């Protein structure tokens, strides 16, 4: 294990509720109420793909121009909700885990579908802890396609099988599997097919991760 690749939303910071709030406002303009379970399906995929899903659920057909306009509006809503974010929005245990891993020589990256990843990491004050931030501006395909993680490994100059991915969405876990990487699911819900599951990073350490890696290959 040489590289660690972290998803942003729901892994490093609690931004999921802000995305949900913005998506709800998009759906409500059509009289459509987005459910929490439907919102789960939007995690890890691109903004445009999310809008297409919501439009389909609402029984709407969108032109390319409408799609572009809604993507812009959603982003504006989301960034407005994020204006007051700071270090207090970093999820439990994440900062200490990242610092410890960096000191031990692991290469660290962020692999996120969000085109706002760098902005959010700057607000959190941790953007300089990562060697590379691969976001939605750098890839063409959404998770579960492995492009975002493979690009991260490539820039880190690491083989995919020497990288570990931390994800909170099923599409992200599948992307890690498709990339040939060890996957750690983060959060309270069960994520199918992940190699290991943690509720949060409190008490989690590089040593525990290495132990899980060793056990999985024995």
How would you describe what is shown here?
This protein is α/β, with parallel strands linked by helices and 218 residues long. The protein has two domains: 3-14 and 86-216, Rossmann fold, CATH 3.40.50; 16-81, Putative phosphatase, domain 2 (DNA polymerase, domain 1), CATH 1.10.150.240. Helices cover 44% and strands 11% of the residues. It has nine helices and six strands. A six-stranded parallel beta sheet has the order 3-2-1-4-5-6, with helices on both faces. Helix 1 crosses helix 4. The mean pLDDT is 94.
CATH 4th-level superfamily of the largest domain: HAD superfamily/HAD-like
**Stretches with pLDDT under 50, minimum 5 residues:** none
How many DSSP E strands?
6
Supply the helix-strand structural class. Answer: alpha/beta
How many domains? The number is 2
What name does CATH use for the topology of the largest domain?
Rossmann fold
Distance between the termini: 15 Å
| Widest β-sheet, arrangement of strands | 3-2-1-4-5-6
CATH C-level name of the largest domain: Alpha Beta
- N-to-C SSE series? EHHHHHEHEHEHEEH
